[in-house]
User: Fold this.
Amino acid sequence: MMLTPERMAPLKARRLGIDTHHEPTLYLPAQSHVCRSEGFESLSRVQVTTHQSCHLIASLNIVTDSLLADDEVGFSESAWKRLGLKAEDPIWLSHPKPVQSLSHVRAKVYGHELTDLQFQSIINDIVEGRYADVHLAAFITACGDDNLSDDEITSLTEAMVKSGSTLDWQLPLVVDKHCVGGLPGNRTTPIVVSILTACGLTVPKTSSRAITSPAGTADTMETLTEVSLSLEQMREVVSREGGCLAWGGAMRLSPADDMLIQVERALDIDSEGQLIASVLSKKIAAGATHVLIDIPVGPTAKVRSEEAANRLAASFQTVAANLGLELQVMMTDGSQPVGRGIGPALEARDILAVLQNDPEAPQDLRQRSAEVAGAMLAMVKHLSPEEGTRLALDTLNQGTAWEKFRRICDAQGGFRHPAVAPYRYALVAEHTGRVTRIDNRILAKIAKLAGAPADPAAGVEINVKLGDQVDCQDVLIMIHAENAGELNYAVEYLNEHPQVIELENLLQQEA
Assistant:
């Protein structure tokens, strides 16, 4: 008689305290009888069953020393927490069923168009943990480089929505916005949400953490208040204040998106088709009815030309229409960073300065936030864009946006001040000149090497704008880091890329 896993002698669970990020991982000693009987080897996919009939699929590593006893199975932190285990809980291991949807991934690798059901099968398996990181990477790569048609993006978006929780506010008008990114410091969202909610609109804003940038809105907001809200907490905050500024990953709104983002970050890939599906799935799951998409366009932004921006905008609008979502696109200047800070805490300080009407606040961030908020007000209140922007600026000037922001922070767990990094390095002008070019990508890379977004206080502070005239020894940028090692990495990269800020030499012109 063949023994089922439940009839075999169980192994004892042991917590090893190993951080494998989001991927659940198991550890078995090489001499384990389970390895021999089941034919497990390193990197095998293994199904875990607990005495409470909880299941999980994890990747296996083989331990060749005496770390584990023959009757023990070690768990990474992510696997341990997901199963809610206690020390020495009985555990049974077996081979998982074959993942049939991988055949659809292979089809996409070879250029075939996938159907609604095929995308749903893939997304369901991703959410159920059947895909290892290598499988996720294959799916992300196969869908990259404009390999998804608008119909496929629609199917992928619907599948991602259906895979998780959804919210219905029972309101005819729920607004949201998203910037496609690629522009350092463009942290308009907290300001826009504060303006719109102060104007009486409902804005249940959920944001992602950074994928390829030095900070996402969730990373920045986390330096100011709690962002890991449950669905019930989010409902309560929105009910009290009309809006929230939360991290979507904590609420299982389009959970497949958060799993894909983890691998996209490692690959440094943010393809257009998956970008659209990611954004719209989160908006629909959060219950939005009207959405504004901000596309910054510039030579070193994510979207580099007007032609590329028009293509992306057309896909956004087509997919949104397929899904019954009212959507408007605005294209903004992406030629240089917005504000002064690049990195969670530095961007948070810019946000506070704008909301508090500080005379030293970055005026470009203030104006851009007012224009984005104004476009949304115009969209739903039947105003002209100019009237919408004036209303947004009035809301800032009167202090009602700042009051609303504080109330939202208090409702989410309390307001706190952003941290300050102890290590700094200044890049100074070597001669008098005029700023002719600022490279967004190099600045973002420097901020990430300095530690952002994992180190909240790390990043880059930029003191100049295009066209500014500077004197010799003026500070152009200041690198902030939480430790000396990462500061050195960032400075080394800066020295290799001095073209991050280009100056026209005015003295040579006069000579």
Notes: The longest strand covers residues 55-63. Residues 12 and 88 are 4 Å apart (CA to CA). The radius of gyration is 25 Å.
